[in-house]
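Table 4 source record.
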Amino acid sequence: MIAHWYNLLDVLLPFDWLQYDFMKNALLAVILVTPIFGILGTMIVNNRMAFFSDALGHSALTGIAIGVLLGIQSPFWALLGFSVIFAVAIMIVKSANMASTDTIIGVFSSTAVALGIVILSRNGGFSKYTVYLIGDLLSIAPSELMVLGVILIVVLIFWAGWFNKLLLVSINQSLAKSRGINVRFYEFLFAVIIAVVVTVAIRWVGILIISSLLVLPAAASRSIAGNIRQYHVFAVLIAMISGLVGLIFSYYWGTATGATIVLILAVFFAGTFLINIVRR
């Protein structure tokens, strides 16, 4: 299948930046992963969970460290397990209403980062894991593209089946409860899905900017959207266009792809912010 993708790009897009197979893989990765960021980001912004997604990214260090301690060759499964547990733990403590959400997430985030750095830096070995800080989209393999494709399908099915309930929970929890919706369940379910997406994408996007890719498309879209449908469509389009432009620019500039995409997203946010000001 991947050979057909290469041949199709050679025919339709005969550009210099697509002459290498790793760029073709990166392009397909952008096409698969940016809609996920755009879709999930809308609900993250609605629920004011930007700090939560940032904490999940930072917790990846501890997940990787646990994998190293257990002697696992690939730390992915340790990272995935820890991220899910981390997300659930935050939601449990948050639901206890013992402190503000920002305080709880800050405590979990800083503790996870510190623990991860302590374990990984033992005997001076931290430099081996710096790739996780900035990510490397160009290193994605064809087999990993299949994983992204499966996750995109799962997210689309989840969104089509439960979007209305998630939206009601994010807007008015009292109304959602009066209509028989299990608010706690959907909050936990959404948190776990974010944890899985962050875990899968973190190797290619990077711990430092993963939350930016989740938040900026939705934040930019929110400034210009007139209704919920436009909000989602604009968020996905902004994410995909930024991903494509960032990939091309990073090739010619020789810069980190994930960070370049974030800069393009920031330009989009500034532009839509100005448009919103002019409209008023």
